[in-house]
Task: inverse folding
């Protein structure tokens, strides 16, 4: 059971030391820029991050969690719990709260706490619809003013959502999956998409996530590789899908029909295993398991390239689990290399300072 606790635990085996060619690492190390390093542990694995309206940062890191107000401090867990499986800040009727999935011995619980304190006052949530109670909450997202929870229990993965209050959950009606549900997104015209390694579902509303998209209909990429992430860009009006074997696909329209493939990306003759997406100012980012991140400036898979900046090898060869975007600032959540951040604008590109929190 423990190996299923967090997504990033299963991917740390991919933390490999890689180079684009035999001699590149020597040039890279000689020209490595000095990053700004703060007080957060540089070797922690971060599964989730969120910020409140005052720009306080909250991160989940397995057996620990942290809050940044004016400095990094440990965030206390609810009494009796010893592991955090997910985290989100959510506004309930004008008041922000911190919601989190926790592990208490052999059981899983959902809690709500006040923000702005290193030791929140926690209240356990019991869902009156009994949809999330006792289930491991492996991912929390806010989509269209809803809390969306991806859960696991007894071999099945499900997605549920809460309107407004974060305590009463409803069913998306996506069939239970035996493969891990990796992500759910809001797409074009209010549609929703969810992805597993082998299947993609969509629906016109969040409570009708029931249509399995099929290759025969041109609804998914023609690939035998496992899916890893899905993204919709309002800027390009296209969907994107990443795989574990070196390719990213883009749809030809905003219905997710027909797909273009990137070149197969490899490092040292090994295909790059891609992960989740993010987007900052028209630059679409995709994480990897052991090769930092790639970017598509302008949103075309023809422009899919590895991080070109000479930052620390900890990020360049890191496992980028996820991203968090706040305006012009991008945070990079890694497995084993801590938390990184930098700014990005179309006019100036990436900032000169790569900060290691």
Result:
């Amino acid at each position: 059971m423990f190996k299923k606790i967090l997504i990033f635990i299963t991917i740390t085996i991919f933390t490999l030391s890689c180079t684009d060619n035999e001699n590149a690492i020597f040039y890279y190390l000689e020209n490595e820029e000095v990053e700004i390093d703060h007080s957060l542990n540089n070797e922690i694995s971060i599964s989730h991050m969120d910020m409140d309206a005052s720009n306080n940062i909250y991160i989940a890191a397995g057996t620990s969690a942290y809050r940044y107000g004016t400095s990094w401090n440990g965030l206390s867990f609810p009494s009796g719990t010893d592991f955090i499986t997910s985290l989100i800040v959510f506004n309930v009727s004008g008041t922000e709260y911190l919601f989190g999935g926790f592990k208490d011995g052999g059981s899983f619980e959902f809690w709500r706490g006040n923000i702005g304190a290193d030791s929140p006052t926690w209240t356990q949530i019991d869902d009156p619809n009994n949809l999330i109670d006792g289930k491991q909450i492996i991912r929390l997202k806010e989509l269209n003013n809803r809390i969306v929870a991806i859960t696991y229990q007894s071999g099945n993965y499900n997605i549920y959502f809460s309107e407004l209050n974060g305590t009463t959950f409803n069913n998306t009606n996506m069939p239970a999956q035996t493969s891990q549900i990796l992500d759910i997104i809001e797409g074009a015209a209010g549609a929703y998409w969810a992805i597993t390694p082998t299947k993609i579902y969509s629906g016109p509303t969040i409570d009708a996530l029931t249509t399995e998209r099929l290759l025969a209909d041109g609804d998914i990429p023609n690939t035998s590789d496992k899916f890893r992430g899905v993204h919709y860009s309002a800027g390009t009006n296209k969907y994107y899908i990443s795989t574990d074997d070196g390719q990213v696909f883009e749809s030809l329209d905003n219905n997710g029909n027909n797909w273009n493939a990137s070149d197969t990306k490899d490092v040292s003759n090994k295909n790059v295993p891609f992960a989740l997406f993010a987007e900052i100012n028209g630059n679409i980012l995709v994480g990897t398991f052991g090769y930092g991140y790639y970017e598509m400036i302008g949103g075309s898979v023809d422009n899919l390239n590895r991080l070109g900046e000479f930052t620390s090898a900890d990020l360049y060869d890191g496992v980028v689990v996820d991203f968090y975007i706040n305006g012009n600032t991008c945070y990079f959540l890694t497995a084993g290399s801590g938390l990184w951040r930098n700014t990005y604008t179309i006019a100036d590109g990436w900032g000169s300072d790569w900060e290691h929190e």
